[in-house]
Amino acid sequence: MNEKIILDVDTGTDDAIALCAALLSKDLDVLGICTVGGNVELKNTTDNTLRVVTCCRRSDVPVHAGAPLPMVSTLQPWIAQAKSLPRKEGQRSQETAIHVDHLPLPETALKAQDTCACVYLIETLKKAEDHSITLVPTGPMTNIALALRADPSIADKTKRIIMMGGTRSVYPDTQAAEFNVWCDPEALEIVLQSGIDLTMVSLDATSHACLNARQAQQIREIHSAPAELCAALIEHRLHASAAHGDTKGTGVGAALHDALAVCALVHPEVLKIEDVSCHVDLGHGFAYGETVLGRNYTEEKMAANCHYAFSADSSIFFHWLYSTLKEGSVKQAA
Asked: Is there a catalytic annotation at residue 223?
């Protein structure tokens, strides 16, 4: 039986690859997609998502636009999030940016639904059988946190959350925080305190989910529109990483963070996981947004509330992505 999921994305380049894999997977039943501001502005994350849905010929999957801004941090105009979000078009080179405002796909006539993401999440979870739907956020947790604040009862309805975010030792964006968490630290802390079964696919794990130019070419040779898109985005990420002096861009490969979270739905063995106590630094200092782990907890201390992925198997990841895109291309051609 296929696992029922709702994706929550800020599409972006690696979100687009994650979307392609989820929409084409024979093992996943994508009930809907929510969008959130993050990698690019909400209007662009929504438009990019609709383009990917069209590319994958999955117009049956509804897209719901969500929150354009974090819950709290932009209320304080002097802090970093307020100064950088939303990211305006034209403020950065699209050739060297990891995430582009518009994916290399044709414009689409497909439109987002009238119902916002927060309302969609509440209504869908409340109508569903208990513990039948998994949430897969690959951007800031704003939509899910808002839904939990509006109706806490949905925590008991949710099967689990498999998210991309957090870090213990890899810091590409700030001194202490991973980007998705840094965008809306309070939102993740709300989710961590909700009691929902949570797997955190961190940068510690996704740094192992890297693909190189040779693997991108293998994907391109599948000869389908989604495969061509994924190959082009991997190559773009390789180029952008190299331009920013990231050795992974020219050596190990380009990290496809968000796709690893989708892979873990189907192949949990791709991750090396430990149960940890995890909370978010909300102090608005240099460590704002840091995911603070305490693995040596006792009953007298903080109990474990998170399955944390410390590493990943790159061979399992590539085999899954390639086979999913290939099987999806055969299905589309049929």
From this structure: no
